[in-house]
Every structure is written in C-alpha cells, then in structure tokens.
Amino acid sequence: MNAPAPPAKRAGDLAADQPLQTFAPADVTPLICAAQPWCEHTNTRIEQLASGPHHAKEICSDCERVLRWLPKPENVARRRVNAYRVAKMLMAPGLTRWQTKFLSSVSRQQKFSPKQTAVLERMWDELFGDPR
Q1: Cβ atoms of residues 92 and 69 within 8 Å
Q2: Does 120 reside within a domain?
Q3: Is 33 a member of any domain?
Q4: Which runs of E-coded beta strand occur in 9-53?
Q5: Which residues, 6 or more positions from 62, have their beta carbon under 8 angstroms from its beta carbon?
Q6: Can you give the residue range of the structural domain that contains 64?
Q7: Residue 49 contacts residue 57 (beta carbons within 8 Å)
Q8: N or C terminus: fewer CB in 10 A for the chain?
Q9: Is residue 77 part of a domain?
Q10: CA-based nearest residue to 85, from 36, 34, 131
C-alpha cells in the first residue's frame, strides 16, 4: 500500500519556518542575550550613543553583536502619554462616530504621524480642556 506523500511546501510556508524576532520599541527592559537565536551568551551591556536617531544600543559583551537599538527616553514617555490619552478619550462619553473610529484605529499603533498627533491634541483639548 502506498503511503501518502507529504504536503508540498508553498512559498507562504517559508516564513513560518523562520524565527519571529519582534521587539517592542517602548520596551526598555534589559534583554537576555541567550534569548536570541544567533547568540547564546548571557552577558550584555548598554552603550550610550552621542548622536543619531537612537539613544543607546544593547550589545552582547562576549561576541559584540548588536542585539537591539534602544529608543530615547523622551520618545518612550511621549508614546506612553499618547497611549493613555487615546485610552481615556475612548472612554469619554459623547464621541462622534468618526472620533470613535479614529481613536480605535490609532490605538493599535505605537507611533503616530505628525498629523495624527495634531488631531489627538485637538480632540484632547475639546474633551478635557487642557492640551498638556
């Protein structure tokens, strides 16, 4: 009796075989190097950067690989404030349908465009009075 052939691999299956590497940009907790599939060391260090878009980088102390880039503290704080404001505005009574839809859509984002930020600040001012 013939055994059934294994299922053929499709192009979309290739991505499932690759390890998923995601880092939340607002996550500033130290990363254990052993968690990375390409490095099995446990010693890491944070190197502050003088200029550029990143605040610091986390490096494996043993093999000198860059594990991740760390965001500037002011960006982390701003994203937390924005997330708080969006959540609070979503709970506010009397929102229009458009406002509810807008807030729901941006609540799934980590970063906002300048236009989205301006709309959020204007909505915050309308709902709660103080833009800051």
Answers
A1: no
A2: yes
A3: yes
A4: 44-48
A5: 33, 39, 41, 43
A6: 24-70
A7: yes
A8: N
A9: yes
A10: 131
